[in-house]
């Protein structure tokens, strides 16, 4: 008896699953490399709206202070848009790619909160390192905005999964 050509071998299924996972892993690594380049090495546009310490560092631990100062001292509307939205947009890929990469973070709507917490931890790591190892601003507002971006990304992932499930159900 001849095997049906449409039947898959188990190893073919495994190979198909590895390719998208490898692509997502590569995409996540490229995103993280880009993120670290931007936050540690790229030009520091519009970073400081306050007193600078004696060693050239700037630290803001008062929530929403720099957001207010950026808005208040900006010469036009586009400066705060670039700075504030940039901090949010910069972390949306993290929130979307992390649950895509790690199955355990995909479970439910409540999975958004742990991904948001990981975005917060990553942002704190970045801000602490910016303060100690670069001449950039360590800013609690950046942590807030980055965490919001991570939560938006995780929410978009959750929404995409729900829309995909709905599409698959209606396509049958």
From TrEMBL:
Q: Which residues form the VanZ-like domain?
A: 28-159
Which keywords belong to this entry? Membrane, Transmembrane, Transmembrane helix
InterPro entries hit by this protein? Teicoplanin_resist-assoc, VanZ-like
Identification of the protein by name: VanZ family protein
Where do transmembrane segments lie in this chain?
Answer: 21-43, 83-102, 109-132, 144-168
What domain of life does the native source organism fall in? Bacteria
Q: Give the originating organism.
A: Alteribacter keqinensis
């Amino acid at each position: 008896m001849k095997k049906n050509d449409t039947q898959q071998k188990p190893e073919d299924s495994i190979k198909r699953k590895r390719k998208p996972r490898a692509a997502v892993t590569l995409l996540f690594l490229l995103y993280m490399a880009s993120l670290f380049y931007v936050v540690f090495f790229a030009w520091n546009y519009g970073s400081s709206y306050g007193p600078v310490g004696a060693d050239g560092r700037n630290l803001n631990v008062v929530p929403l202070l720099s957001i207010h100062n950026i808005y208040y001292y900006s010469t036009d509307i586009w400066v705060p848009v670039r700075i504030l939205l940039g901090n949010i947009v910069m972390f949306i890929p993290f929130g979307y790619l992390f649950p895509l990469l790690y199955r355990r973070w995909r479970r439910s709507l409540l999975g958004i909160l742990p991904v948001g917490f990981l975005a917060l931890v990553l942002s704190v790591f970045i801000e602490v390192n910016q303060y100690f190892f670069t001449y950039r601003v360590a800013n609690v507002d950046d942590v807030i905005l980055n965490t919001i971006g991570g939560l938006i990304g995780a929410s978009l992932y959750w929404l995409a999964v729900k829309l995909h499930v709905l599409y698959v159900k209606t396509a049958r």
